[in-house]
Amino acid sequence: MYNYLSGGFLAYLNRDLLLGIRNKSDLIKPLIFFLLVSVLVPLAIAPEADRLAELAPGIIWIFAVLATLLSVERLFSDDLQDGSLEQMLMSPNLLIFPILGKVTAHWLMIGLPLALLSPVIGIWLSLPTTAVLPMMLSLAIGTAVLSLIGAVGAALTLPRQGGVLIALLVMPLYMPVLIFGSATIQSAVDGQSWTAPLSILAAFLAIAIALCPLAINVSLRLAKNG
Amino acid sequence: MASTNILKIEKLAFERNDTLLFEPVSFELNSGEALHIEGENGAGKTTFFQLLINLLEPSAGEIHFRGQNFGDCIYEYLSDVLFIGHQSAVKGALSVEENLRWMSPANTSSKEITTALRSVGLEHHASMPCYRLSAGQQRRVALARLMTTSASLWYLDEPFAALDKQGVEFIEDRMQSHLDQGGAIVFSSHQDLVKTTTRSYRLNPYRELV
């Protein structure tokens, strides 16, 4: 149906991006939520620059985890309902490329905008300017891992839209990402080398790209067999 | 044209919750033939189609495609199959044209897309998002794939659901011309075709012998 390698990837990437752009409110919701939380945090805790800067890495990363979790549950359930998933599963080509296409689209619409928006939040939370670049990089790489792992959870909980169940399933796998993600920012705030935790995040991404699509493939087939 | 064997099903069975869903199915399908799968609601027609497109694994039995076990030629088999399901895979947020382009082979030209849309009577709605269309019109969007496909084996699950008289007539014409070109069709429907001669196969719910 599509070119053997890139075709399936690009076709699904394009389609999911187009669908995302058509449903703009779904796209903007997590970003607005992100902004609101960061406006409220200084008011609720204490508007002292030192204390905020200390908490900022953790707050930003907790938010990134929640935003991905909330948005990932619809990744496959819409397709299952309207029959597109059947069409995807019966494609003669390797399924990991369409799957990677869909997950990449999810990251481009959730993770990347969060990373790009994060400097604004950084300023709100009095994050030192030296930590802004590490924060953006760690979010960009880390949210890609979160999207991949979250997609495994979404595929496993089909045919239901498994909101809380996904959270329970993937939370243990999210923890290392959260730890090394906030450690990247924290190291930069403390003036230490931040490339070490960032490289570990990148290693997580390499592993997730290799393994998650395989797990998703199997889970999607199970969902139809169940 | 000498007719060749395209599909051969041998004692295909599917088990759910430890009972067979329908009595084991066996039939042969040659090029130029259409097979009408009949069966009451819940007889397992949709499940049967999912077995045919390798979405479900049969509990027993074999599917042969052009003389080969389909597991040995799964790429060739799935590349040559068009399946339009009960759920038609039409995305409400995408326009009529985008939907058809998405579901057609990658090398389909825009002229072919336009022709396909004209033939199903949707050329004036090409840029309209599909959620605004009626159920019958959405069905037409899905069935427009019959115009752009190059597959020779068609699986159509309830193709006439929600279609008006004109639509049914048009799809029947298209099915007939596909058969004339040496294709083969397996379809399910609760109504009989008027123009096309078909064989029918009754899917019987499995009853245990006491």
How would you describe this structure to a colleague?
The complex is a heterodimer of chains A (226) and B (210). Chain A is mainly α. Chain A has one domain. Chain A has ten helices and no strands. Chain A has helices at 6-22, 24-44, 49-72, 74-82, 84-89, 96-109, 111-124, 132-156, 163-189, 195-225. Chain A is elongated and about 55 Å long. Chain A starts with 5 loop residues before the first helix and ends with a helix. Chain B is α/β, with parallel strands linked by helices and 210 residues long. Chain B has a domain at 1-80 and 186-210: P-loop containing nucleotide triphosphate hydrolases (Rossmann fold, 3-Layer(aba) Sandwich), CATH 3.40.50.300. In chain B, the strands form three sheets. A five-stranded parallel β-sheet of chain B has the order 8-9-10-5-11, sandwiched between helices. Chain B has a four-stranded antiparallel β-sheet with strand order 4-1-6-7, with no helix packed on it. In chain B, α3 crosses α4. The longest helix of chain B has 16 residues, at 165-180. Chain B starts with a strand and ends in an 8-residue tail after the last strand. The mean pLDDT of chain B is 86. The chains are: A mainly alpha (226), B alpha/beta (210).
